[in-house]
Amino acid sequence: MSKPDISPPPLRNDCFALPAGVNWTPVDDALALLRDRLTVVTGVESAPLMQAAGRILAEDVQAKRSNPPQPNTAVDGYGFAGPVADGPCVLPLVEGRAAAGVPFGGKVPSGHAVRVLTGAALPEGVDTVVLEEDVTLDQGHIAFRGPLKKGANARKAGEDVVEGALALPAGRRLTPADLALLSAIGLAEVSVYKVLRVGVLSTGDELVEPGDIAAPGQIYDANRPMLLSLVERMGFEPVDLGSAEDSREALEDHLDQAARRVDVILTSGGASAGDEDHVSALLQEAGAMQEWRIALKPGRPLALGMWDQTPVFGLPGNPVAAKVCTLVFARPALSLMAGAGWQEPQGFDVPAAFEKRKKPGRREYLRARIREGRAEVFHSEGSGRISGLSWAEGLVEIEDGARDIQPGDPVRFIPYGSFGL
User: Fold this and answer.
1) Residues 173, 56: contact at Cβ < 8 Å?
2) Sign, CA torsion 408/411/415/418
3) Residue ranges of E strands in 35-185
4) CB of 309 within 8 A of CB of 11?
5) Kind of pairing, strands 289-294 and 301-307?
6) Rounded-to-integer distance, Cα 40 and Cα 292, Å
7) Distance CA 180, CA 67 (A)
8) How confident is the model over 363-419, as pLDDT tens digits?
9) For the chain, what is the mean pLDDT?
10) Extended strands (E) in 269-416
11) Which residue among 86, 177, 314, 365 has its CA within the 20 to 30 Å range from the CA of 279?
12) Tell me: the pLDDT tens digits for 57-90?
């Protein structure tokens, strides 16, 4: 029975509200608030198995048949009823053979053997297989040396997955290996969440498109191509919303159009409280704006709100801060809203190849890479150094407290791959 094409209820306008009296928000507290208050925002549909790679399961998948569906041989050889005691063994062969897809048509009598090929269903009366390399064949008999345990070189029915058992859980993003499993257990289509549509909007009069002529005081829009690519690499559908000039009317029009096209909006720039920070101002006027002053470096201001029932993440305009905030905050939030659940990146403790003294109070993320088993960090912490994002292969996360890091001290390295990139 096909599922109705319906979507879950929208998020509440106050879902990003901070507790009373909160000013600076620690990173872990901010992540916990997002995890607890966000829900899936996209609907469910059926997808053919051949088109399901990268999609997120909306329901648990139970096996429609066992894998393997019946006992079979793991090798080319000869099958019989085991076990075989230590010492020489000679068995007469029956006529015929069992091959993958061409079963043996009969029962093998006790004390006899039959030729079997890899993947063949074991005939009735056969539970053990001896490798053909270990056998001498002569005058319709085989000779080999024991011992051989009962069940040797044979696969049991359902030893991988039993019919009716849970094969894959809801919320899993399907991999090529998952498609092999789903096919093996008899699935032709699966129930999946619709792909989360993530719009990316840049703001600012200073921005020009790459390739255009930049006037004095203007810069090329570095954030939008980066964020659109990040969204795609994370497995969501990127939607280019262009750039909006610094005016309330222009930005309001962009947001109105975006809310009709996408499930989530990422903006960069305009997320603070300055005269030209219209993202914050418009969300505030809409009655669904929270400015989270997060205790991290880089990227303290993070504007979060709702526009026409569409969640908006107002990222910092600085490309380094925009990427860090996307990886640390937006990525797990988008994953949850897409149906894949909250996904924390996996980090690894490695020796530092640098020294750094850090004051308490803020969590820091340094552009880093691994060389000769140690974490190197970019030579400058300047958040305007975009080249450091390309140089890096991940981030070093330095906890909220004070640290005096010396070469060889353990630090937590999070490779970009742990963020789904």
Assistant:
1) yes
2) positive
3) 44-48, 61-62, 72-73, 77-80, 84-98, 113-116, 128-131, 136-138, 141-148, 154-155, 166-168
4) yes
5) antiparallel
6) 22
7) 11
8) 999 999 999 999 999 988 877 788 899 899 999 999 988 999 999 999 999 999 999
9) 88
10) 289-294, 296-297, 301-307, 310-315, 348-351, 356-358, 363-371, 374-377, 394-398, 403-405, 410-415
11) 365
12) 999 999 999 999 999 999 999 999 989 999 999 9
C-alpha dist (Å) from residue 20 to 23, 25, 77: 9, 12, 74
What are φ and ψ of residue 377, in 5° steps?
-120, 155
Place of tokens 């400058």: 380
What are 211-240's pLDDT values in tens digits? 778 778 777 788 899 999 999 999 999 999
Which residue from 393, 275, 365 is spatially nearest to 27, judged by alpha carbons? 365
Q: How far apart are CA 126 and CA 129, in angstroms?
A: 8
CA 35 – CA 334 distance, rounded (Å): 10
* Closest residue by Cα to residue 231 from 338, 96, 77, 391: 338
* Token pair 């005058």: residue: 139
Strands (E), 99-180: 113-116, 128-131, 136-138, 141-148, 154-155, 166-168
Find, among 311, 42, 65, 66, the residue nearest to 191 by Cα. 42
Give dist(CA 52, CA 310) in Å, integer: 26
Nearest to 288 by CA among 9, 8, 10, 15: 15
Rounded CA Rg of the chain: 30
286 touches 248 (CB < 8 A): no
- CA pair distance 35, 23, nearest whole angstrom: 19
What's the one-letter identity of residue 224?
R
Cα gap 369→379, rounded to integer Å: 12
327: helix, strand or coil = helix
Scan for tokens 């270990």, then name that residue.
134
Q: How far apart are CA 302 and CA 321, in angstroms?
A: 10
DSSP-assigned letters across all residues of 215-250: PTT-EE--HHHHHHHHHHHTTSEEEEEEEE-SSHHH
By the 10 Å C-beta count (0-12 exposed, 13-18 middle, 19+ buried), 69 is classed as middle
- Return the residue matching tokens 């989360």: 196
End-to-end CA separation in angstroms for the chain: 36
